[in-house]
Amino acid sequence: MLKAVRVDDGYTNLLLPAAIARHGLSGRDAAFVTELASGTIRRQGTYDAILAACVDRPLRKVEAKVLDALRLGTHQLLGMRVPTHAAIDTTVTLVRAKVNQGAAGFSNAVLRKVAARSLDEWVDVVAPGTGHAQLAVAHSHPVWVVAALERALGGASAELPALLDADNVPPRVTLVARPGRATRDELPGEPTTLSPYGVTLAGGDPADVAAVAEGRAGVQDEGSQLVALAAVEAPVEGRDEVWVDLCAGPGGKASLLSALADERGARLLAVERHHHRAALVRRAVGPAPGVLVVQADGTHAPLPDGSVDRTLLDAPCTGLGALRRRPEARWRRTRADLADLVALQAALLTDAVRILRPGGALLYATCSPLLEETAAVVTGAVERLGVVVDDLAPVLPDVGDATGPLPGTLQLWPHRHGTDAMFMALLRKE
């Protein structure tokens, strides 16, 4: 798993289910492997600082597969309830099998040093003092991400440690009942507090739930459910028949939108640029009669001007609001990525405004709280495109403590709401 993420730019949350199924794991074994892989990647920054204090050379000079194994061993020693002898022995055996005896002896010596202190004791050693650099090591985030999240919190910067902590807590699995196809009552688990369609699973494999296996329900973070709900519940003037999901892949929001569209007699056009993601959308929405999935560029949507009543633009972004579920994103994204992403977001928003009719509703959303991708993009649209920001609070009245960076916008947070850090802005065409 670590090699696939490191070498092939794989995504942990997509690779894990396939790997677990391929090896026939279930129950506690599947949970153990999930935590071992995800937790090691999630806490990589902290573990690398600890390992650097335990080796006699720069970490960049440690062979990559040996470093992967040392990270796995360190997570077992400091982040899981694995006995010390078992964590060291399994790691050393792995290195011996994959590299050589010399590397195994080196790993044994390093992990014995790691085992001499607890995680909290090590953090005091490798991350003394205060400031962004200390928080970055202690909470395993790049320094630039720590600074960007602090800016996004605005006046609530005292919450920064709580937010960074929340990014390191594995999320519980949340299911969504697609209206008209499943009811929340038939799903096992505790009802979500903000979405009327969700439940939180206490454990087990979601694929074992009948409604999920039949495509009538799915796995979807509560924040993502709220984005779809906001796009549907925003009031429109006049006709309400043509809906568009402008960046529909991989299909979670499109599936919920299609179910809601069926209930309201509307049609949904799901637009996705990439072929493989468009295929995922088709698979997710299934044979719904009022849905058309189109592979097309959302910056040049195949629709006439002013022809759409509702548009959801869940724009491609850094994904730094979903670090609980996508632990590798914090190490993969750089500040340099922002310029291209912001330009794409602005281009997508320009065409979303073009196809929206006056009186319709456009919901702009990102799975990122970074101000460059939220407030700056929306402010640019207001200045360039003649749109206004409408107040989202009445649309989602049960969502509290979620004031966004611009008046009328909403910002969800993992440490406040237990969701991904979704940003939402409701735009109207004047």
Automatic annotation (TrEMBL):
<protein>
    <submittedName>
        <fullName>Methyltransferase domain-containing protein</fullName>
    </submittedName>
</protein>
<feature type="active site" description="Nucleophile">
    <location>
        <position position="367"/>
    </location>
</feature>
<dbReference type="InterPro" id="IPR029063">
    <property type="entry name" value="SAM-dependent_MTases_sf"/>
</dbReference>
<dbReference type="Pfam" id="PF01189">
    <property type="entry name" value="Methyltr_RsmB-F"/>
</dbReference>
<dbReference type="GO" id="GO:0008173">
    <property type="term" value="F:RNA methyltransferase activity"/>
</dbReference>
<keyword id="KW-0949">S-adenosyl-L-methionine</keyword>
<feature type="binding site">
    <location>
        <begin position="247"/>
        <end position="253"/>
    </location>
    <ligand>
        <name>S-adenosyl-L-methionine</name>
    </ligand>
</feature>
<comment type="similarity">
    <text>Belongs to the class I-like SAM-binding methyltransferase superfamily. RsmB/NOP family.</text>
</comment>
<keyword id="KW-0694">RNA-binding</keyword>
<keyword id="KW-0808">Transferase</keyword>
<dbReference type="InterPro" id="IPR035926">
    <property type="entry name" value="NusB-like_sf"/>
</dbReference>
<dbReference type="InterPro" id="IPR049560">
    <property type="entry name" value="MeTrfase_RsmB-F_NOP2_cat"/>
</dbReference>
<feature type="binding site">
    <location>
        <position position="272"/>
    </location>
    <ligand>
        <name>S-adenosyl-L-methionine</name>
    </ligand>
</feature>
<dbReference type="GO" id="GO:0006355">
    <property type="term" value="P:regulation of DNA-templated transcription"/>
</dbReference>
<dbReference type="InterPro" id="IPR001678">
    <property type="entry name" value="MeTrfase_RsmB-F_NOP2_dom"/>
</dbReference>
<dbReference type="GO" id="GO:0003723">
    <property type="term" value="F:RNA binding"/>
</dbReference>
<dbReference type="InterPro" id="IPR023267">
    <property type="entry name" value="RCMT"/>
</dbReference>
<dbReference type="Pfam" id="PF01029">
    <property type="entry name" value="NusB"/>
</dbReference>
<keyword id="KW-0489">Methyltransferase</keyword>
<feature type="domain" description="SAM-dependent MTase RsmB/NOP-type">
    <location>
        <begin position="152"/>
        <end position="430"/>
    </location>
</feature>
<feature type="binding site">
    <location>
        <position position="314"/>
    </location>
    <ligand>
        <name>S-adenosyl-L-methionine</name>
    </ligand>
</feature>
<dbReference type="InterPro" id="IPR006027">
    <property type="entry name" value="NusB_RsmB_TIM44"/>
</dbReference>
<dbReference type="GO" id="GO:0001510">
    <property type="term" value="P:RNA methylation"/>
</dbReference>
<feature type="binding site">
    <location>
        <position position="297"/>
    </location>
    <ligand>
        <name>S-adenosyl-L-methionine</name>
    </ligand>
</feature>
